[in-house]
Design goal:
Layout (H helix, E strand, L loop, with lengths): L13 H11 L3 E2 L11 H12 L12 H15 L9 E4 L2 H12 L5 E6 L5 H7 L3 E6 L9 H7 L4 E7 L11 H11 L5 E5 L19 H4 L2 E6 L12 E4 L2 H14 L5 H13 L5 H16 L15 E5 L8 H12 L1 E2 L1 E2 L12 E5 L4 H12 L4
Parallel strand pairs: 1-10, 3-4, 3-5, 5-6, 6-7
Antiparallel strand pairs: 2-8, 7-8, 9-12, 11-12
Bound molecules: 4'-deoxy-4'-aminopyridoxal-5'-phosphate and glutamine.
Length: 382
Protein backbone atom coordinates (compact mmCIF):
# COMPACT_ATOMS: atom_id res chain seq x y z
CA UNK A 1 0.00 0.00 0.00
CA UNK A 2 1.32 3.45 -0.90
CA UNK A 3 0.78 5.94 1.91
CA UNK A 4 0.94 9.67 1.20
CA UNK A 5 4.00 11.74 2.11
CA UNK A 6 2.50 14.61 4.06
CA UNK A 7 5.74 16.62 4.25
CA UNK A 8 9.19 16.74 2.71
CA UNK A 9 11.35 15.96 5.76
CA UNK A 10 13.07 12.63 5.42
CA UNK A 11 13.85 10.18 8.19
CA UNK A 12 13.44 10.73 11.90
CA UNK A 13 13.84 14.09 13.66
CA UNK A 14 17.47 14.84 14.55
CA UNK A 15 16.64 15.14 18.27
CA UNK A 16 15.51 11.52 18.39
CA UNK A 17 18.42 10.36 16.24
CA UNK A 18 21.11 12.04 18.36
CA UNK A 19 19.58 11.14 21.72
CA UNK A 20 19.34 7.50 20.58
CA UNK A 21 22.95 7.56 19.37
CA UNK A 22 24.03 9.08 22.70
CA UNK A 23 22.26 6.28 24.58
CA UNK A 24 23.70 3.60 22.29
CA UNK A 25 27.27 4.81 22.85
CA UNK A 26 26.84 5.80 26.47
CA UNK A 27 27.73 9.37 25.50
CA UNK A 28 26.97 12.51 27.48
CA UNK A 29 23.89 13.92 25.83
CA UNK A 30 24.32 17.63 25.04
CA UNK A 31 22.21 17.18 21.89
CA UNK A 32 18.43 17.31 22.46
CA UNK A 33 17.42 20.33 24.54
CA UNK A 34 16.30 19.21 27.99
CA UNK A 35 17.59 19.82 31.53
CA UNK A 36 19.11 16.84 33.36
CA UNK A 37 18.43 18.24 36.85
CA UNK A 38 15.42 17.98 39.16
CA UNK A 39 12.41 20.25 38.95
CA UNK A 40 11.45 22.49 41.86
CA UNK A 41 10.33 20.41 44.83
CA UNK A 42 7.13 22.46 45.18
CA UNK A 43 6.14 21.70 41.60
CA UNK A 44 6.52 17.93 41.96
CA UNK A 45 4.66 18.04 45.27
CA UNK A 46 1.80 19.99 43.68
CA UNK A 47 1.59 17.42 40.87
CA UNK A 48 1.27 14.57 43.36
CA UNK A 49 -1.29 16.50 45.39
CA UNK A 50 -3.40 17.28 42.31
CA UNK A 51 -3.66 13.57 41.48
CA UNK A 52 -4.30 12.63 45.10
CA UNK A 53 -6.95 15.31 45.49
CA UNK A 54 -8.93 13.88 42.60
CA UNK A 55 -8.03 16.32 39.79
CA UNK A 56 -7.83 13.50 37.30
CA UNK A 57 -10.61 14.16 34.80
CA UNK A 58 -10.81 16.38 31.72
CA UNK A 59 -10.23 20.06 32.30
CA UNK A 60 -12.05 22.70 30.23
CA UNK A 61 -11.14 22.77 26.53
CA UNK A 62 -9.24 26.13 26.60
CA UNK A 63 -7.31 25.04 29.71
CA UNK A 64 -7.75 25.16 33.47
CA UNK A 65 -9.05 28.66 34.39
CA UNK A 66 -6.64 28.91 37.35
CA UNK A 67 -3.67 28.23 35.08
CA UNK A 68 -4.80 30.73 32.43
CA UNK A 69 -5.30 33.35 35.16
CA UNK A 70 -1.87 32.64 36.65
CA UNK A 71 -0.23 33.04 33.21
CA UNK A 72 -2.14 36.28 32.57
CA UNK A 73 -1.03 37.62 35.97
CA UNK A 74 2.56 36.70 35.13
CA UNK A 75 2.40 38.68 31.84
CA UNK A 76 1.03 41.64 33.79
CA UNK A 77 3.76 41.43 36.38
CA UNK A 78 6.69 40.80 34.06
CA UNK A 79 5.71 42.93 31.05
CA UNK A 80 2.86 45.13 32.23
CA UNK A 81 0.76 43.44 29.53
CA UNK A 82 -2.92 42.65 29.73
CA UNK A 83 -3.80 39.22 28.36
CA UNK A 84 -7.43 38.14 28.70
CA UNK A 85 -7.29 34.58 30.07
CA UNK A 86 -10.75 33.78 28.66
CA UNK A 87 -10.49 35.11 25.13
CA UNK A 88 -6.76 35.31 24.37
CA UNK A 89 -5.06 32.35 26.02
CA UNK A 90 -5.28 28.61 25.33
CA UNK A 91 -3.35 25.88 27.17
CA UNK A 92 -1.85 23.27 24.84
CA UNK A 93 0.09 20.01 25.07
CA UNK A 94 3.40 21.80 24.46
CA UNK A 95 4.54 24.46 22.02
CA UNK A 96 5.20 22.08 19.11
CA UNK A 97 1.49 21.30 19.14
CA UNK A 98 0.58 24.99 19.53
CA UNK A 99 2.66 25.87 16.46
CA UNK A 100 0.99 23.12 14.41
CA UNK A 101 -2.46 24.19 15.58
CA UNK A 102 -1.83 27.86 14.74
CA UNK A 103 -0.63 26.91 11.24
CA UNK A 104 -3.62 24.62 10.79
CA UNK A 105 -5.99 27.41 11.85
CA UNK A 106 -4.76 29.73 9.10
CA UNK A 107 -3.14 27.85 6.21
CA UNK A 108 -4.88 26.56 3.13
CA UNK A 109 -3.48 24.66 0.16
CA UNK A 110 -1.55 27.04 -2.08
CA UNK A 111 -0.61 29.43 0.73
CA UNK A 112 3.01 30.25 1.46
CA UNK A 113 4.67 30.62 4.84
CA UNK A 114 8.09 32.18 5.37
CA UNK A 115 10.52 30.40 7.69
CA UNK A 116 13.79 31.96 8.86
CA UNK A 117 16.50 29.30 8.81
CA UNK A 118 18.17 27.71 10.71
CA UNK A 119 14.79 26.79 12.24
CA UNK A 120 13.27 24.36 14.74
CA UNK A 121 12.64 21.28 12.67
CA UNK A 122 8.87 21.03 13.00
CA UNK A 123 8.01 24.32 11.26
CA UNK A 124 8.41 23.30 7.63
CA UNK A 125 6.75 19.87 7.97
CA UNK A 126 3.84 21.56 9.80
CA UNK A 127 3.36 24.03 6.95
CA UNK A 128 3.49 21.25 4.36
CA UNK A 129 1.11 19.01 6.33
CA UNK A 130 -1.43 21.78 5.74
CA UNK A 131 -0.89 21.72 1.97
CA UNK A 132 0.99 25.01 2.03
CA UNK A 133 4.46 25.85 0.76
CA UNK A 134 7.33 26.75 3.08
CA UNK A 135 9.56 29.56 1.83
CA UNK A 136 12.90 29.45 3.66
CA UNK A 137 14.94 32.64 4.17
CA UNK A 138 18.44 32.22 5.60
CA UNK A 139 19.54 34.21 8.64
CA UNK A 140 22.93 35.83 8.24
CA UNK A 141 25.90 34.15 9.99
CA UNK A 142 27.89 34.56 12.19
CA UNK A 143 25.42 36.43 14.42
CA UNK A 144 22.35 35.05 12.63
CA UNK A 145 20.56 38.36 12.25
CA UNK A 146 17.60 38.80 9.92
CA UNK A 147 18.34 40.30 6.51
CA UNK A 148 15.08 42.23 6.08
CA UNK A 149 15.66 42.77 2.37
CA UNK A 150 15.69 39.00 1.88
CA UNK A 151 12.44 38.67 3.83
CA UNK A 152 10.90 41.43 1.72
CA UNK A 153 11.95 39.62 -1.47
CA UNK A 154 10.37 36.38 -0.22
CA UNK A 155 6.93 37.95 0.27
CA UNK A 156 4.40 37.25 -2.52
CA UNK A 157 0.62 37.73 -2.76
CA UNK A 158 0.32 34.12 -1.53
CA UNK A 159 2.29 34.73 1.69
CA UNK A 160 -0.07 33.92 4.55
CA UNK A 161 2.32 33.64 7.48
CA UNK A 162 5.82 34.23 8.80
CA UNK A 163 7.14 32.20 11.70
CA UNK A 164 9.83 33.79 13.84
CA UNK A 165 11.65 32.60 16.95
CA UNK A 166 13.31 34.62 19.71
CA UNK A 167 15.37 33.64 21.70
CA UNK A 168 16.45 31.49 18.84
CA UNK A 169 16.99 27.76 18.61
CA UNK A 170 19.68 26.74 17.59
CA UNK A 171 21.77 29.95 17.57
CA UNK A 172 20.85 31.61 20.89
CA UNK A 173 20.34 34.95 19.09
CA UNK A 174 17.64 37.35 20.36
CA UNK A 175 15.53 39.96 18.60
CA UNK A 176 15.68 43.68 19.33
CA UNK A 177 12.68 45.96 19.27
CA UNK A 178 13.96 47.23 15.90
CA UNK A 179 13.57 43.73 14.45
CA UNK A 180 9.89 43.80 15.34
CA UNK A 181 9.57 47.29 13.84
CA UNK A 182 11.15 46.08 10.61
CA UNK A 183 8.75 43.15 10.47
CA UNK A 184 5.80 45.46 11.16
CA UNK A 185 6.81 47.66 8.26
CA UNK A 186 6.97 44.70 5.86
CA UNK A 187 3.58 43.24 6.77
CA UNK A 188 1.68 46.51 7.38
CA UNK A 189 -0.31 46.55 4.16
CA UNK A 190 -0.69 42.79 3.86
CA UNK A 191 -2.80 40.03 5.41
CA UNK A 192 0.29 38.21 6.68
CA UNK A 193 -0.06 36.55 10.09
CA UNK A 194 2.88 36.22 12.49
CA UNK A 195 3.64 33.07 14.47
CA UNK A 196 6.05 34.08 17.21
CA UNK A 197 7.76 31.12 18.85
CA UNK A 198 8.83 32.51 22.22
CA UNK A 199 9.40 29.26 24.12
CA UNK A 200 12.74 30.57 25.51
CA UNK A 201 11.15 33.87 26.58
CA UNK A 202 12.34 33.46 30.19
CA UNK A 203 15.81 32.38 29.10
CA UNK A 204 17.37 35.68 28.07
CA UNK A 205 20.85 36.10 29.54
CA UNK A 206 23.35 38.85 30.46
CA UNK A 207 20.71 41.15 31.98
CA UNK A 208 19.08 41.67 28.59
CA UNK A 209 15.33 41.75 28.12
CA UNK A 210 13.08 39.60 25.97
CA UNK A 211 11.20 41.58 23.33
CA UNK A 212 7.87 39.87 22.81
CA UNK A 213 5.55 40.29 19.85
CA UNK A 214 2.85 40.92 22.47
CA UNK A 215 4.57 44.19 23.40
CA UNK A 216 4.32 45.39 19.82
CA UNK A 217 0.79 46.80 19.74
CA UNK A 218 0.54 46.77 15.96
CA UNK A 219 1.93 43.26 15.41
CA UNK A 220 0.10 41.76 18.37
CA UNK A 221 -3.15 42.24 16.47
CA UNK A 222 -1.97 39.78 13.79
CA UNK A 223 0.04 37.31 15.85
CA UNK A 224 -0.06 33.96 17.55
CA UNK A 225 2.56 33.88 20.34
CA UNK A 226 3.57 30.36 21.39
CA UNK A 227 5.08 29.30 24.71
CA UNK A 228 6.24 26.19 26.59
CA UNK A 229 6.18 25.71 30.35
CA UNK A 230 8.81 23.02 29.87
CA UNK A 231 11.48 25.65 29.25
CA UNK A 232 10.52 27.72 32.28
CA UNK A 233 10.08 25.03 34.92
CA UNK A 234 12.70 22.54 33.63
CA UNK A 235 10.00 19.94 32.91
CA UNK A 236 10.08 19.49 29.14
CA UNK A 237 8.56 16.01 29.52
CA UNK A 238 5.33 17.40 30.89
CA UNK A 239 4.62 18.78 27.40
CA UNK A 240 2.42 21.68 28.46
CA UNK A 241 2.47 25.07 26.75
CA UNK A 242 0.12 27.80 25.58
CA UNK A 243 -0.89 30.14 22.81
CA UNK A 244 -1.65 33.85 23.25
CA UNK A 245 -3.54 35.50 20.39
CA UNK A 246 -6.22 38.16 19.85
CA UNK A 247 -9.81 36.93 20.42
CA UNK A 248 -10.62 36.20 16.75
CA UNK A 249 -7.35 34.30 16.33
CA UNK A 250 -7.92 32.44 19.59
CA UNK A 251 -11.36 31.39 18.37
CA UNK A 252 -9.83 30.04 15.15
CA UNK A 253 -7.13 28.29 17.18
CA UNK A 254 -9.67 26.64 19.48
CA UNK A 255 -11.79 25.54 16.51
CA UNK A 256 -8.88 23.28 15.60
CA UNK A 257 -7.64 22.51 19.12
CA UNK A 258 -11.03 21.16 20.27
CA UNK A 259 -10.86 18.41 17.64
CA UNK A 260 -7.11 17.79 17.77
CA UNK A 261 -6.60 17.00 21.46
CA UNK A 262 -9.55 18.78 23.12
CA UNK A 263 -7.75 19.39 26.42
CA UNK A 264 -4.48 18.99 28.29
CA UNK A 265 -3.31 16.82 31.21
CA UNK A 266 -5.27 18.05 34.25
CA UNK A 267 -2.94 17.34 37.23
CA UNK A 268 -0.08 19.03 35.38
CA UNK A 269 -2.20 22.13 34.87
CA UNK A 270 -3.17 22.22 38.56
CA UNK A 271 0.45 21.90 39.60
CA UNK A 272 1.61 24.64 37.24
CA UNK A 273 -1.22 26.95 38.31
CA UNK A 274 -0.28 26.60 41.99
CA UNK A 275 3.43 26.93 41.31
CA UNK A 276 3.13 30.03 39.13
CA UNK A 277 0.71 31.71 41.54
CA UNK A 278 3.07 31.04 44.48
CA UNK A 279 5.88 32.73 42.52
CA UNK A 280 8.60 31.42 44.83
CA UNK A 281 10.94 29.73 42.33
CA UNK A 282 14.21 31.36 41.27
CA UNK A 283 13.84 32.72 37.71
CA UNK A 284 15.13 30.16 35.25
CA UNK A 285 17.42 32.69 33.54
CA UNK A 286 19.53 32.96 36.70
CA UNK A 287 20.05 29.19 36.73
CA UNK A 288 20.84 29.11 33.02
CA UNK A 289 23.15 32.14 33.20
CA UNK A 290 25.45 30.23 35.55
CA UNK A 291 25.35 27.21 33.30
CA UNK A 292 26.16 29.13 30.13
CA UNK A 293 28.97 31.06 31.84
CA UNK A 294 30.44 27.88 33.28
CA UNK A 295 30.19 26.08 29.96
CA UNK A 296 31.89 28.94 28.08
CA UNK A 297 34.70 29.18 30.61
CA UNK A 298 35.57 25.48 30.46
CA UNK A 299 35.17 25.34 26.66
CA UNK A 300 38.15 27.74 26.38
CA UNK A 301 40.45 24.77 26.96
CA UNK A 302 39.05 22.81 24.04
CA UNK A 303 39.76 23.18 20.31
CA UNK A 304 36.15 24.30 19.63
CA UNK A 305 35.46 27.88 18.57
CA UNK A 306 32.73 29.94 20.21
CA UNK A 307 32.05 32.75 17.73
CA UNK A 308 29.48 34.46 19.90
CA UNK A 309 28.11 33.60 23.36
CA UNK A 310 24.42 32.63 23.26
CA UNK A 311 22.25 35.60 24.29
CA UNK A 312 19.41 33.29 25.25
CA UNK A 313 17.90 29.77 24.99
CA UNK A 314 19.52 26.48 26.10
CA UNK A 315 22.02 26.40 23.28
CA UNK A 316 25.54 27.37 22.27
CA UNK A 317 26.77 27.05 18.72
CA UNK A 318 30.44 26.16 18.18
CA UNK A 319 32.79 25.65 15.25
CA UNK A 320 35.08 22.62 14.97
CA UNK A 321 37.33 23.86 12.15
CA UNK A 322 40.46 23.26 14.27
CA UNK A 323 39.49 19.60 14.71
CA UNK A 324 38.14 18.40 11.39
CA UNK A 325 36.69 19.34 8.03
CA UNK A 326 34.06 16.59 8.11
CA UNK A 327 30.46 17.56 7.25
CA UNK A 328 28.65 18.49 10.48
CA UNK A 329 26.36 15.42 10.54
CA UNK A 330 29.32 13.09 10.20
CA UNK A 331 31.27 15.11 12.77
CA UNK A 332 28.45 14.98 15.33
CA UNK A 333 28.23 11.21 14.91
CA UNK A 334 32.00 10.84 15.22
CA UNK A 335 32.07 13.00 18.35
CA UNK A 336 29.35 10.86 19.93
CA UNK A 337 30.90 7.52 19.03
CA UNK A 338 34.61 8.30 19.49
CA UNK A 339 34.58 10.90 22.26
CA UNK A 340 31.30 10.25 24.06
CA UNK A 341 29.70 13.70 23.65
CA UNK A 342 26.47 14.08 21.66
CA UNK A 343 25.57 17.40 19.99
CA UNK A 344 23.26 18.50 17.17
CA UNK A 345 24.65 19.31 13.68
CA UNK A 346 23.30 22.73 12.71
CA UNK A 347 22.63 21.62 9.10
CA UNK A 348 19.62 19.71 10.52
CA UNK A 349 17.93 23.09 10.99
CA UNK A 350 18.08 23.93 7.27
CA UNK A 351 15.69 22.46 4.70
CA UNK A 352 18.56 22.28 2.17
CA UNK A 353 20.92 20.87 4.86
CA UNK A 354 23.27 23.86 4.44
CA UNK A 355 26.48 22.88 6.21
CA UNK A 356 28.42 25.71 7.90
CA UNK A 357 30.35 23.10 9.94
CA UNK A 358 28.76 24.11 13.21
CA UNK A 359 27.40 22.02 16.06
CA UNK A 360 24.95 22.93 18.82
CA UNK A 361 25.62 22.18 22.48
CA UNK A 362 22.81 22.18 25.07
CA UNK A 363 24.16 23.73 28.29
CA UNK A 364 20.94 23.23 30.33
CA UNK A 365 22.71 20.55 32.36
CA UNK A 366 24.13 19.92 35.82
CA UNK A 367 27.59 21.41 36.30
CA UNK A 368 29.06 17.92 36.69
CA UNK A 369 27.52 16.86 33.35
CA UNK A 370 29.07 19.86 31.60
CA UNK A 371 32.43 19.22 33.33
CA UNK A 372 32.50 15.58 32.32
CA UNK A 373 31.53 16.39 28.71
CA UNK A 374 34.12 19.13 28.40
CA UNK A 375 36.84 16.94 29.97
CA UNK A 376 36.19 14.56 27.10
CA UNK A 377 36.34 17.40 24.56
CA UNK A 378 39.65 18.63 26.00
CA UNK A 379 41.28 15.35 24.98
CA UNK A 380 40.61 16.10 21.32
CA UNK A 381 43.64 17.47 19.44
CA UNK A 382 43.15 20.82 17.75
N1 LIG B 1 10.04 25.82 19.58
C1 LIG B 1 11.36 25.76 19.80
C2 LIG B 1 12.23 26.78 19.17
C3 LIG B 1 11.91 24.78 20.59
O1 LIG B 1 13.23 24.71 20.78
C4 LIG B 1 11.07 23.84 21.17
C5 LIG B 1 11.74 22.80 22.00
N2 LIG B 1 11.16 21.86 22.49
C6 LIG B 1 9.68 23.93 20.95
C7 LIG B 1 9.22 24.93 20.13
C8 LIG B 1 8.69 22.96 21.49
O2 LIG B 1 8.36 23.02 22.80
P1 LIG B 1 7.50 21.88 23.47
O3 LIG B 1 8.45 20.90 24.06
O4 LIG B 1 6.68 22.57 24.51
O5 LIG B 1 6.66 21.26 22.41
N1 LIG C 1 13.55 21.79 21.40
C1 LIG C 1 14.46 20.74 21.71
C2 LIG C 1 15.74 20.91 20.93
O1 LIG C 1 15.84 21.74 20.06
C3 LIG C 1 13.95 19.35 21.44
C4 LIG C 1 12.55 19.15 21.13
C5 LIG C 1 12.34 17.83 20.47
O2 LIG C 1 13.00 16.88 20.78
N2 LIG C 1 11.46 17.81 19.52
O3 LIG C 1 16.66 20.19 21.19
Amino acid sequence: MQLPQKHSATGTTIFTVMSALAAEHNAINLSQGFPDFHIDEQLSRLLGEAAKNGHNQYSPMPGLPALRQAVAASFKKRYGLTVDPDTELTITPGATYAIYTAFTAILQPGDEAIVLEPAYDSYIPNIEMNGAKAVPVALTAPDFHVDWNKVKDAITPRTKAIIVNTPHNPTGAIWSKEDWDQLAELVRDTEIIILSDEVYEQLVLDGKKHNSVLEHEELRQRSFALYSFGKVYNNTGWKIGYCVAPPAFTQAFRRIHQFLCFTVNTPGQYALAGHIAADTAAPVHTIMQQKRDHFLSIMKDTPFTIFKPAAGSYFQIAGYERVSDMPDMEFAQWLTKEHGVATIPVSAFYSNKKDDKLIRFCFAKKEETLDEAVNRLKKIKG
